[in-house]
Amino acid sequence: MPRVTDHSHLTLTDPSTDPRDVAEAAAAVIAERTGAPRHDIALVLGSGWKQAADLLGEADCEIDNTDVPGFAPAAVEGHSGSMRSIPLEDGRRVLVYGTRTHFYEDRGIRAVVHAIRTAAAAGCTTVVLTNGCGGLRAEWAPGTPVLISDHINLTAASPLEGATFVDLTDLYSPRLRELAREVDPSLDEGVYVQFRGPHYETPAEVQMAKILGGDLVGMSTTLEAIAAREAGLEVLGISLVTNPAAGISPTPLDHQEVIEAGQAAAQRCGELLARIVERIR
Ligand code: 8IG
What we know:
The protein has helices at residues 19-34, 109-121, 174-183, 203-212, 222-230, 255-279; strands at residues 41-44, 61-64, 82-87, 93-97, 126-135, 144-153, 188-194, 216-218, 234-244. By secondary structure, the protein is α/β, with parallel strands linked by helices. It has a 5-stranded mixed β-barrel with strand order 5-8-7-6-9, surrounded by 4 helices. The two termini are 29 Å apart. The model has no long low-confidence stretch (mean pLDDT 92). The site of 8-iodo-guanine has 16 residues, from strand 5, strand 8 and strand 9.
């Protein structure tokens, strides 16, 4: 084995460190712990998607986030602070992240996209980003999965550092969206609008998102998708509408409802994910 540079001491918070070196260190730990030299597909589980991934197959390795350079424990109820490796029947491997770091946690934007850079360093060529979000269309009942067709990033931040000009046309792979619709032709598509959070939107902000062209409102995904594009990953984004966005329905939002909508939709979302992932080439 050729000796690679040891990056295990590096942290994301040191500005003189290249975050891709920390991702390399993380990928090395994942390779060592799983015994798999590479992974193929990364899957990020958002609110409501945790049990959905159980239908993908049995993980043969689970790694605590705290054992992997640059990763932090989960900060959101209903998320788990670990990652799993699931071998598919054809020999490919899925790296499943049970949680994500949100922009609103203020751990720095590098931490927000570290899982994506680690997936790329681990060999992944595709990332499936899932989230729980608010829906702007009244016909999307809680528990409806929606493909992300494009996004509007209202965080005023970017994971790219310096003069890194990256094209974001077709960021959410038309090829993978089509594949998803082959699995489930009833899937709708929508534009995902990322707010900083952690508060939910006001009804006026939801109307603003609608006027801007949005269909879904949430607190994740867009920064990860940008980092994925920079790293050369093909991106599929799927939102689970867990609640009507503020003002779309007469009742106020509640995080417990969000978790319950996810549990109720777990079977459908799990089958959807499993059938999509096994078809990704
Ligand atoms: I789950 O209605 C979930 N996450 N911003 N708005 C925002 N994030 C969310 C929402 C929502 N529901």
